[in-house]
Amino acid sequence: MDMRRLEAFASVYELGSFSKAGQKLFLSQPTISAHIAALEAELEVRLFDRLGRSVLPTQAADILYRHARETFASLDSARAEIALLREEVAGRLVLAGSTIPAHYLLPEVMARFTARYPDVSLRLNVGDSAVAAAMVANGEAEVGMVGANTGQAELEFIPLVEDELAVVVGSSRLAKDAAGLTLTELETLPWVMREPGSGTRSALESALAEAGLDLRALKVAAVVDTTTALLQCVRRGMGLAVTSRFAAAELLERGELAAVPAPGLVLRRTFSLIHHRQRHLFPVARVFVDFLRDAFRNRPA
């Protein structure tokens, strides 16, 4: 099957237009039409229904497009592997990171990686652990780093680094109120929480459960979607919160936040590298995975 015809077909399928496909591939519309007609003759099936100005793919086109994408991906992988033989690492890599890894851990590694491999372009998508894991599971990202095991059997979770969580407070009055309190007494104070699906929230929920307490018993003043928002709410005295020491380090050092004891609460979790078990990792992704694992293996304690 002629690759030029297959590329023309894929462009028409994606853009829904013969003229737009021609513009994308720098070919005339009659040439695009000829490529599609030749494919239809070869396969003995209609690929598109022309309804006025609309171009609608047939069931046969859906099947061909799925296999065409696999073919293009396989060729890209071949080119990348051949580049590796020339000791070249090049291409585009899409990553997914939950909030703490994306903001406080991955950027340093990404900067060193692109300094070493300048022909690589990285894209980092950020969400909570559930969102980041879903990106890797559905193929939107090849590799991810998350703070909670979301339980998808199709994903492999490889531990990279431990994170210590802390109960923090910004208001001096709240800090005084919280000092020396038991866990049950801490429930009576206002809390700022991350959203469901966040690794930080999952770690807190697990720690409370181990201590015989229920997250729903906390007096929640606010629920926020980012660590930055959580820290700013706490800094302004809205309540206590649990957050990563990676995220809170500067504010704790400057005295804008204070850590308060939470006796009986074991607040630790692991940040893990994730990838899809059944999907082939492109060479640039394999090199990045090795680079990432080495970075945290050699990270000072």
Notes on the structure:
This protein has 301 residues and is an alpha/beta fold. It folds into 2 domains: 83 residues, Arc Repressor Mutant, subunit A (Orthogonal Bundle); 210 residues, D-Maltodextrin-Binding Protein, domain 2. Strands 3, 4, 5, 6, 9, 10 and 11 form a 7-stranded mixed sheet that branches. A two-stranded antiparallel ribbon has the order 1-2. The protein is elongated and about 80 Å long. The mean pLDDT is 87.
Task: List the keywords.
2 domains; alpha/beta; D-Maltodextrin-Binding Protein, domain 2; Arc Repressor Mutant, subunit A; two-stranded antiparallel ribbon; 12 helices; 301 residues
List the helices and strands and how they pair.
Elements lengths: L2 H13 L2 H8 L3 H15 L4 E4 L2 E4 L1 H27 L5 E7 L1 H18 L3 E7 L2 H9 L5 E4 L8 E15 L2 H7 L4 H4 L3 E5 L4 H12 L8 E6 L2 H9 L5 E4 H9 L4 E2 L8 E9 L6 H15 L4
Parallel strand pairs: 3-4, 3-5, 7-8
Antiparallel strand pairs: 1-2, 5-11, 6-9, 6-10, 6-11
Helix pairs in contact: 1-2, 1-3, 1-4, 2-3
What is the string of helix and strand elements?
A: HHHEEHEHEHEEHHEHEHEHEEH
Number of domains: 2
Overall pLDDT metric: 87
Count of alpha/pi helices: 12
Radius of gyration: 26 Å
